[in-house]
Amino acid sequence: NAGVTQTPKFRVLKTGQSMTLLCAQDMNHEYMYWYRQDPGMGLRLIHYSVGEGTTAKGEVPDGYNVSRLKKQNFLLGLESAAPSQTSVYFCASRRLAGVGSADTQYFGPGTRLTVL
Amino acid sequence: EDQVTQSPEALRLQEGESSSLNCSYTVSGLRGLFWYRQDPGKGPEFLFTLYSAGEEKEKERLKATLTKKESFLHITAPKPEDSATYLCAVQAGTSGSRLTFGEGTQLTVNP
Question: By percentage, how much of chain A surpasses pLDDT 90?
Answer without folding.
Answer: 84
